[in-house]
Amino acid sequence: MTDKTKNKIAIFDLDETLLAGDSSRLWTRYLWDKKIVTDPHFLKLDEQMIADYYAEKLDINQYLYQHLSYFKNHNINEINHWVNDFTETKIQPLLYPEGMSIITQYRQKNIPVIIISATMSFLVHAIAKQLNADISMGIDMQIKDNYYTGYIEGIPTFREGKVDHLNRWKEVNNINNAYIYFYTDSINDLPLCYQADNVTVINPDQQLAQISQMKNWKQQHWDLNK
């Protein structure tokens, strides 16, 4: 079936796709610069995380538990205050104009825009608001007594987990048949690429660039100067 005979959904990865950077690493740097966290191992943890991510061997559960342990004594209200400031001061200047323009075009056509990211959902939701996305999905962290425990709630939105979350959303909204546009930069999103009908890779990593050539997926280069 063609895209004209189906419901349409536009799905975007976040980090290095809509954003010129990695929101998790930027968040780490924000907490460090604000002296909310002062242990240098906090920075080293992120360096290892990004290396493992690109090597496709990241243990997302272990990383997030360690990451959150550095500010576990701060409640969710405090963290949300930081997130709002972080999003406005650090994230907003790094959003690609091309991405924001395409999101606007989809919304004008009444096509739902979904951002699915392997970043903690309290960051993803805040950034998605800046992008005017309709729906956002991230890694939900367990909450107890208004504090994050460090444990993941449910299936993380990482690799195949993104497909799982999308399918659950479609089921809840009774969407059995949809034409899916998908934008990403990362080989880790290959499972979702294979679920999409129309894939555009944005500033792709080497592996995704090679696969996109074989699959005849569209490739675009976005920067902050347009």
TrEMBL record:
Please identify the protein, giving its name as recorded.
Answer: HAD-IB family hydrolase
Taxonomic lineage is:
Bacteria, Pseudomonadati, Pseudomonadota, Gammaproteobacteria, Enterobacterales
Q: Which Gene3D superfamilies match?
A: HAD superfamily/HAD-like, SG protein - dephosphorylation function
What NCBIfam families is this protein classified in?
A: HAD-SF-IB, HAD-SF-IB-hyp1
Q: Where are the transmembrane segments?
A: 110-128
Keyword terms: Hydrolase, Magnesium, Membrane, Metal-binding, Transmembrane, Transmembrane helix
Q: Which InterPro entries match?
A: HAD-like_SerB (IPR050582), HAD-like_sf (IPR036412), HAD_hydro_SerB1 (IPR006385), HAD_sf (IPR023214)
SUPFAM superfamilies, sorted: HAD-like
Q: Which GO terms describe its molecular function?
A: hydrolase activity; metal ion binding
